[in-house]
Each structure stands twice: as C-alpha cells, then as structure tokens.
Design brief:
single chain, 320 residues, alpha+beta, Aminopeptidase, 2 domains, eleven-stranded mixed beta sheet, 9 helices, 27% strand, globular
C-alpha cells in the first residue's frame, strides 16, 4: 500500500499502465487517478495504490480513491501478459489477488465500495458478482465522425462562443459548472484547485474551452463546452471533456448548441472523431447525442458493494 511512489515503483507503474493501454486501446485509469500516478504522489488526492509483484515484476495495481460520502472507489490495472485471454483487467489470478489486497486495505467495515471495469464484458460482471458486488452505474463512451453533417448545424441554435480566459473566467465557470452538476458523483463541487490543475495540464488549450456569455448578466455564463484533444492516439481523438449549461437556461437548446460548437472547433483542428462520456441513466443527454450522430463505442461499469454493521463482506476471490 503506497501513497508516495519511490523511483522504481513510479517507473514500473508507468510501464504497466502503458502496456495495459496499448493492449486495451483504452486508458488504464481515469484522469484523476492517472494524474496522481503521473506525479508519483497520491497523498494530496487521498488516494492509495496497492501494488502486486511476481518475481520482482509489477503485474497489477489497484488505486483506492476516497469519496466525499465516505465511500471508496477501486480501479485496477493488470499486466496484459498475466490475464486470462484478452479480458481487459479481470479474470486472472493476479486480479483476484489484487482485489483481495485492495479490499483488505479498505477494511472489513468499509461501507460502500465502488469497483470500476473499463470497456466492460459479461465476464467482468461475473467476477464482480463473485466478490459480492452488483452493477450500479454504466458510463457510455460515445463517438461521432467529424465534421458533422451540414444539416445538423443548420438545425442547431447558433452559439456565439469565445475562448475561455484563464484568470478572468475561472469563478464564472466554477459557479456555472457546480450549479449544473450539483450532486453529480464526479463533476460536482469543483474547486479552484481542481480547475487550476486542469489549466496547467499539457493538453489544455484555451481556444478549445468554448464559453457562452450571458448577455443579461455580465460576468456570468450561460454554459460552456470544454474540449480535449488526445494527440497520443492515432488518429487523434477529440473529446467533449466537460459540457454544462446553467440550470436557469435549461430547456432552450443551449446544450445542443454548445455540443455542436465544441465539435465544430475540434473538426477545425483536423480531428475526424469526436468522443464524450455520459451516464446511460441520463436519457435526455443520450438522446441528444444520438440525434447528433453519436453511437456507443464501449461501456465503463461501476459495481457497488455495501457492507453494513450487520453484514459481512462478499466472498473471497474464487480459486482459478
């Protein structure tokens, strides 16, 4: 169990993630966990890394992230050479041992524990259920070809967006975003530190952070569409990173308008595939994105285990 990685651990974990991402064509960990690992210091985010070695070689890692509600979220990565078949992470003795160590770290009175599987398969469901978890939430990754057909733009409310100005628009964006995502498990409650960390990221481009001013309330925003270009992908992939509309402007077509504005900006950079993540349960958003031509590429799934004072954790990993 580590919060600060020494030099060898850091190098080995970056190597493990790189090999996993190459095998899966998918990030090994979500952005917050990846950023903490990249820094080598997980303590500021309250995260913990559980590392599993075999004959000195790092073959698995679980990252434990505390939630605002007292829950714990677990993400895992397993050496592609130590998996059963082509399954993304689950389904191996390494993964079983990794989960056993991770759940021991969380503790026997752990309450709510979330476990994520990226690019989920039916076999992942079996593995999670065997540990006492049940499917809780599906996060869709949806993709669309760019540029959008001209008839989609013609049928969309024009949005006169401009580039985000760091240092000037920070408070306005944070206020709007936190109103739009109140109660959301990842996007709610952003702080200035959260925003500053993204503004310092190598991928950040203020021109790709499109904001829409409220003409009736100077210094406030109707909404914003923040894009992110994944240039390490071949070809590059353009993401709608965060899109939000202030609740006072819901129902007026601004969500569609801002999505189109972001996709048009990406297309102008030569990006041919747009991507975003959305909860399957957000049927309004899913319907909107489908109307723009998006289709589901894959699903990331969260599983939940709840341990009460009168209950015991799920069964230990099954033998293989």
């Amino acid at each position: 169990m580590r919060q600060q990685l020494d030099g060898r651990e850091h190098r080995d974990l970056l190597d493990l993630m790189g090999r996993a991402e190459l095998a899966d064509a998918h990030p090994a960990f979500p952005e917050p966990q990846r950023a903490a690992i990249d820094s080598g210091d997980l303590a500021p985010a309250g995260m913990t890394a559980v590392l599993v070695r075999d004959d000195g070689r790092l073959v698995g890692c679980a990252v434990l992230t505390p939630g605002r509600d007292g829950s714990t979220t677990i993400h895992t990565a397993v050496d592609p050479e130590r998996r059963d078949g082509s399954r993304p992470a689950h389904g191996s003795r390494v993964w079983d041992g990794l989960m056993e160590a991770a759940l021991q770290q969380v503790g026997p009175h752990r309450g709510r524990t979330h476990l994520w599987a990226m690019a989920v398969t039916a076999a992942d469901d079996d593995d999670a259920v065997a540990l006492g978890f049940h499917p809780e939430r599906d996060l869709l990754q949806m993709r669309v070809r760019l540029p959008l057909p001209s008839d989609i733009a013609r049928a969309t409310l024009p949005a006169a967006t401009r580039a985000f100005v760091p240092g000037r628009d920070d408070d306005a964006w944070l206020t709007m975003n936190n109103r739009a995502f109140a109660g959301h498990p990842e996007q709610a409650g952003w702080t200035r530190d959260d925003l500053d960390a993204r503004l310092r990221a190598r991928w950040f481009d203020p021109e790709g952070f499109r904001v829409l001013d409220d003409p009736d309330r100077p210094g406030t925003l109707i909404g914003a569409c923040w894009t992110k270009v994944h240039r390490s992908r071949a070809p590059a992939l353009g993401e709608i990173y965060v899109i939000a509309v202030d609740p006072s402007h819901h129902g007026r077509g601004w969500g569609r308008a801002l999505t189109v504005a972001g996709l048009e900006w990406l297309a102008a950079q030569g990006i041919t595939t747009g991507m975003l993540y959305t909860d399957e349960a957000n049927t309004g958003a899913v319907s909107l994105y489908r109307s723009l031509g998006f289709a589901v590429d894959h699903i990331d799934r969260s599983y939940l285990e709840e341990v009460t004072e009168d209950a015991t954790p799920g069964p230990p990993p099954r033998p293989r």
